[in-house]
Design goal:
alpha/beta; Rossmann fold; 8 helices; 37% helix; binds S-adenosylmethionine
Length: 204
């Protein structure tokens, strides 16, 4: 689901970039540690600040990134124009990721899955495109925030079947991951890191 004008303004400004850099990325690092490999995908990349974080802070060698909104994609491409050999950005949907199975060592979600009506299918797609042992780093907005009367007036979010921290963690496990860690900020926001289970190494 695309952002409304209010949320678009909230996302596309230097304060948001500073929070993403200084706070959200730090939380993901605390929970998940270093990248398990150099090939990284960011879903819902917005204007591309997350790509900077993945290259400069997490040390990714290459970042593929997509967003449902073509205007966000244009902004991200402009932002990353100087790094076109390491970065590829396209318009796409997290419920049908345009990438082969097992393509990435890590997938990042900076606050997009709560925008997706069928969010469980996005989790299945993340699982498909990660290699076994690859890691999923997610920062998410929970149902208590989405259903808050003020938030309902300000934002356009899908409202049916949203998730709390436990429901998201359970769905991640059902999709085929093992949860590495999760941390909440009140009932509104939570961070998760999960690893794609390597079924080939499991005993039968
Ligand atoms: C809250 S914004 C976050 C943007 C950016 N990740 C950030 O942290 O600044 C959510 C983003 O997800 C995108 N989005 C929503 N649904 C999507 C989907 N199904 N597939 C890919 N991107 C989606 C929106 O266009 C928007 O750019």
């Amino acid at each position: 689901m695309l952002l409304n004008r209010f949320e678009r303004a909230l996302m596309n400004n230097p304060v948001r970039a500073a929070v993403q850099r200084g706070f959200e990325a730090h939380r993901m690092e605390q929970l998940g540690g270093a990248l398990p490999g150099p090939r990284v995908l960011e879903m819902g990349c917005g204007r591309g600040v997350g790509i900077d974080i993945l290259l400069d802070r997490f040390g990714a060698q290459s970042v593929d990134a997509f967003d449902l909104d073509p205007e966000m994609v244009l902004m991200a491409r402009r932002r990353q124009a100087g790094r076109s050999r390491r970065v590829r950005v396209w318009t796409g949907d997290a419920t049908a990721i345009d990438a082969a199975d097992d393509s990435y060592d890590a997938v990042f979600d900076f606050g997009i899955i709560h925008h997706i009506p069928d969010w469980r299918s996005a989790l299945r797609e993340v699982h498909r495109v990660l290699r076994p042992g690859g890691r999923f780093y997610a920062e998410e907005v929970l149902v208590a925030f989405i259903e808050h009367p003020v938030a309902r007036r300000l934002f356009d979010h899908p409202t049916s079947e949203r998730f709390d921290r436990q429901q998201f963690a359970a769905a991640v496990e059902v999709a085929g991951f093992s949860l590495v860690g999760s941390r909440a900020m009140g009932a509104w926001f939570a961070w998760f890191v999960a690893e794609k289970r390597d079924v080939s190494s499991e005993e039968v």
